[in-house]
Amino acid sequence: PPPPPPPFPPPPPPPPLPPSSRRSQRAERRRDQPGSERRTAMATRLQFENNSDIGVFSLLTNAYCLVAHGGSENFYAAYESELAEHIPVCKVSVAGTRLAGRLCVGNKNGLLMPHTTTDQELLHVRNSLPDSVVVQRVEEKLNALGNCVACNDYVSLVHPDLDRDTEELLADVLGVEVFRQTVADNVVVGSYIRFTNQGGICHPRTSVEDLDELSSLLQVPLVAGTVNRGSDVVGTGLVANDWCAFCGADTTSPELSVIESVLKLRNAQPSAIVTDMRASLIDSVS
Would you say which domain of life the source belongs to (predicted)? Predict the structure, then answer.
């Protein structure tokens, strides 16, 4: 019989892709995988020296971020990588401690620090923050301001026993309306609620009636929830602004999902944040 025809030669291999094209193809494959949609913003988990109560050691607003001195450099780097292009990230100490998030309270308009803050610390903060941010010390016996006050750029909830002069300073320096309130019968409102201009999360045992009342006061949606694997102290386990959030490393995926949803982080962009002061949303309290 005649010999079989020779096999067809294999096609030549395609030319190698440049590195940028290979990266693009890998990114396309990742996007094609189910559940791999890339979100524009999300909450980041981190800890400070093995402590997941990051709200004790940091304070985040739409205009600046304060981070405690010391600790792991990764803690500061996590904030810097997310925020440095948009707002200053400042390492601080307050009254010789690292408790910046519990001793201070602020928003895009201003920052209040306890009377125990040293002159050097005050000067460092003033030099580090934008000129538009008013920084002032407060004479207040409840000097853990971060525990006693919760605020966004327009409204604040405060400890019922806060001094009247401090209440006036809050209104003047931060430009907010002030309401004396409790959260789930807790007077340290700064520890049990965290809210931005987009939404907020509060103590898991907050009743439906109280949630509705608080949401009406603040004019933002609220949910009852937890951080750090069931912790009800949401103010110490979470810091957030209108486009990003940071929570303790122990926070579970379901908790993270609730946080991202209520704070509207999934499509948030820094450029979308309104910088002009809007008129107050609250006319009266019934």
Answer: Eukaryota
Residue 139 DSSP label: -
Q: Which CATH number among 3.10.20.90, 3.75.10.10, 3.40.50.2300, 3.90.800.10 corresponds to the domain 41-267?
A: 3.75.10.10
Q: Which helix (H) or strand (E) holds 194?
A: strand 193-195
- Please write the tens of the pLDDT for every residue from 36-60: 333 345 788 999 988 999 999 999 9
Nearest Cα neighbor of 194 from 180, 207, 204 is 204
Q: What is the pLDDT of residues 110-136, one digit of tens each?
A: 999 999 999 999 999 999 999 999 999
Q: Pairing mode, if any, of strands 177-180 and 58-60?
A: unpaired
Copy the structure tokens of residue 63: 């205009």
What DSSP character marks residue 226? -
Judge whether residue 236 has pLDDT over 50: yes
